[in-house]
Automatic annotation (TrEMBL):
Residues 166-194 are annotated as: Disordered. GO terms for biological process: translation. This is Small ribosomal subunit protein mS23. It comes from Solea senegalensis (Senegalese sole). Residues 2-133 form the Small ribosomal subunit protein mS23 conserved domain. Keywords: Mitochondrion, Ribonucleoprotein, Ribosomal protein. CDD domains: At1g26750. InterPro entries: mS23_dom (IPR059242), mS23_dom_met (IPR023611), Ribosomal_mS23_met (IPR019520). Pfam families: MRP-S23 (PF10484). GO terms for molecular function: structural constituent of ribosome. It is found in: Mitochondrion. Belongs to the mitochondrion-specific ribosomal protein mS23 family.
């Protein structure tokens, strides 16, 4: 009985009664209080351990936990929907701030200072970040082309190219007329014969 784990289940009376029934305790060795307790049981059942049956219903019960949405979560979702994930996040730097988080911060800042509706405020936030040097590329859009090119041949303007082409055509026309004129002056007459 000392090593039994079942001693915590049921009352002391029930345990002694079961020991007498199983023959571990002889009826002549039963405790003095056993007959009194059997004759006058308590009105309230006192258990040492947990009750055998809990008040909870058995089986799987689904606890409904409400979803928690913050305003910035909606802005993040719309950001990722329009601009995608972008570049990878560098989590090795503790001071790293993602483009999305910068967008959310700028959005909340602009929201506190202006009274624009959400779509207009979203566009204004994108423009404000562009002014700060953060280029946002919409999903499916071609990569942005830099306004300033590093190649000097691409810096030429269309009007400069047309003017240069017209000058070249004029030079070519003058050289053709000069060649035609020299051919006509140095050609001997064909009608003379000996």
């Amino acid at each position: 009985m000392a090593g039994s784990r079942l001693e915590k289940l049921g009352t002391v009376f029930e345990r002694v009664r079961n020991l007498i029934r199983s023959g571990v305790i002889k009826p002549t060795e039963k405790p003095i209080w056993f007959d009194v307790y059997q004759a006058f049981p308590p009105k309230k059942n006192l258990l040492n351990g947990k009750p055998l049956y809990s008040a909870r219903p058995r089986g799987k019960t689904k606890e409904t936990v409400p979803d928690i949405f913050y305003r910035e979560d909606e802005v993040r979702a719309k950001f990722y929907e329009q601009y995608g994930t972008g570049r990878t996040l560098d989590l090795t730097k503790s001071s790293f701030v993602s483009t999305c988080q910068r967008f959310v911060d700028k959005y909340t800042e602009l929201k506190s200072h202006s009274e624009l509706d959400d779509p207009a405020l979203f566009e204004e936030t994108g423009k404000a970040l562009l002014a700060e040097g953060i280029v946002l590329r919409r999903r499916g859009a071609p990569p942005p082309v830099s306004a300033v090119s590093k190649d000097p041949t691409l810096r030429l303007k269309l009007t400069d190219m047309l003017a240069e082409q017209q000058q070249q055509q004029a030079v070519d026309a003058d050289s053709t007329e000069t060649v035609d004129h020299t051919i006509q002056t140095h050609t001997p007459p064909t009608g003379l014969s000996n």
